[in-house]
Design goal:
This protein is an alpha+beta fold. The chain has a domain of about 180 residues: NADH Oxidase, CATH 3.40.109. It has 9 helices and 4 strands, in the order αααβαβαβαβααα. Strands 1-2-4-3 form a 4-stranded antiparallel beta sheet, with helices on both faces. Bound molecules: flavin mononucleotide. The site of flavin mononucleotide (FMN) has 9 residues, from β3. Flavin mononucleotide binds next to β3.
């Protein structure tokens, strides 16, 4: 028989919800201050030591993120060993060189900055959690579609949690850096033995934070009118294939970095 007992004491759980009056801007303004100041840097002050409690404060924020089926399919490895940080950095630097040689035309940043990050957290997930979402598990084409969807739900869930962690770090005064590892088989293989990560677990991202090595700068954001649609998809915001191609060619590098000559 299915156990239908709630996983929490409901009265206690209701008491924990404490929202302001709808429309009161006090908390919104404080939140926006953090959101606006979550800024990426790709080189940190390597001499700074993150107080141990800051890791707890940051991961406490990660813990409260929403997730599909409330599965909470995330694990965070705090890396403090400088030698291990360096080995992970070496992998990303090598990968960056490969991409440059493969002429992917992507303005890849300088990953040597990874080893300078005082805060270094490896974001992991167990992809078997896809089974917690709607899947058929009968090997059919339909099952494949549901599995793909389930995988996306899982990745979105971990991203939501990671974002909470980044915001908490920004709220504590740190600059951050989000580095993707998912989909890079070699990155997985390079990191698993270093961190004793089981075969079933995937490394999705690396989350770096700390005081910046140089003055950080705020990157361009699309104006609100460009992303906001009312009732219907506003065709004025639609980009044709040519528009998109042109954006990638002429604009992408300028919105990723201060200017084309100053790739972080
Ligand atoms: C899902 C995701 C993946 C990212 N992957 C990388 C990455 O692999 N390497 C990197 O240098 N930056 C990465 N970034 C950082 C973005 O380049 C950065 O957030 C963006 O340029 C906007 O700058 P800002 O964070 O200062 O606002 C990633 C960000 C996100 C949200």
């Amino acid at each position: 028989m299915t156990d239908t007992t709630p996983a929490v004491d409901l009265e206690d759980a209701e008491m924990q919800v404490d929202l302001p009056e709808i429309g009161d801007l006090t908390r919104y303004n404080v939140l926006m201050q953090t959101i606006r100041n979550r800024v990426t840097v790709r080189k940190f002050d390597p001499d700074y030591v993150v107080p141990e409690e800051h890791y707890d404060l940051i991961l406490e924020a990660a813990r409260h993120a929403p997730s599909g089926a409330n599965a909470q399919p995330w694990q965070y490895i705090v890396v403090r060993d400088a030698a291990i940080k360096q080995q992970i950095t070496d992998y990303f630097v090598a990968e960056q060189r490969f991409r440059a040689k493969a002429k992917m035309k992507f303005p890849t940043p300088d990953y040597r900055g990874l080893s300078t990050a005082p805060g270094f957290i490896v974001v992991c997930s167990d992809m078997r959690w896809v089974n917690a979402f709607p899947v058929l598990n009968d090997g059919s084409d339909l099952d494949r579609m549901y599995k793909e969807n389930a995988e996306r739900i899982l990745l979105q869930s971990v991203a939501a949690s990671t974002m909470s962690a980044h915001l908490a770090a920004a709220a504590l005064g740190y600059n951050v850096w989000w580095v993707t590892a998912i989909g890079q088989q070699e990155a997985q293989e390079a990191m698993r033995p270093l961190l004793n990560i089981p075969e079933e677990i995937s490394v999705l991202d690396i989350f770096l934070f700390g005081p910046p090595a140089a003055k950080p700068y705020k990157r361009w954001r699309r104006p609100l009118e460009e992303i906001e649609h009312w009732d219907q998809y506003d065709r004025r915001h639609f980009m044709s294939d040519e528009d998109l191609e042109d954006w990638i060619k002429t604009r992408r590098h300028r919105v990723m970095y201060k200017d084309a000559s100053k790739i972080d």
